[in-house]
Design brief:
This protein has helices spanning 5-14, 21-37, 53-62, 64-75, 77-80, 89-102, 109-120, 135-148, 154-160; strands at residues 49-51, 105-107. It is built from 9 helices and 2 strands, in the order H-H-E-H-H-H-H-E-H-H-H. By secondary structure, the chain is mainly alpha-helical. 60% of the residues lie in helices and 4% in strands. The chain is globular, with a radius of gyration of 17 Å. Helix 1 packs across helix 6.
Length: 167
């Protein structure tokens, strides 16, 4: 489940495995930036999309549970298949770095609304008509957001609000 920490860490192991850690983050950053700002076309004065270095450094320095989860996944690769069997401790650290950086991306409400509208439109930007995500990926993301995007409050959120969300 990519909506919870362990799942998101496992997904980081799957992203562009042949690239360096920096290039993998650049790919994630650019993909989300392009979708959040519709390639810079969503708003005349631009939507904010950035990176909070202080959040990244804080997560890197204090994310002990996430560090433990990543190494736990590696140690159980034969059961969960969450991390590749060839993952080394260095690979795990690079995946954690990617995870912490991805968790440090920032958006303003316009960029968040653009992302939401794109997901709601099956991965196509309603502003430009540009496909940003494969339809099956957008559908999966929306379904997971609805069922578990708000962690233990997901059921109550679904009943009270009725919209997919991610905390």
């Amino acid at each position: 489940n990519p909506m919870i920490n362990a799942g998101a860490i496992a997904v980081c192991d799957l992203i562009e495995q042949g690239l360096s850690a920096e290039d993998r983050f650049a790919r994630v950053h650019e993909t989300i930036r392009a979708a959040a700002t519709d390639g810079g076309r969503a708003f005349d004065d631009g939507a904010h999309f950035g990176f909070d270095d202080s959040v990244y450094k804080s997560e890197r320095a204090t994310g002990f549970t996430n560090i433990a989860l990543a190494h736990f996944l590696r140690s159980h690769h034969d059961v969960s298949k969450a991390m590749t069997p060839a993952s080394t401790p260095r690979d795990v650290e690079e995946n954690l770095d990617l995870y912490f950086k991805a968790c440090s991306l920032t958006v303003d409400v316009r960029a968040a609304a653009t992302l939401a509208a794109t997901l709601a439109s099956g991965g196509v930007s309603p502003f430009s008509g540009t496909r940003r995500f494969a339809q099956r990926h957008a559908a999966s993301a929306v379904q997971l957001m609805f069922s578990c995007g708000m962690y233990e409050a997901s059921g109550a959120w679904a009943c009270k609000v009725g919209l997919p969300a991610k905390s």
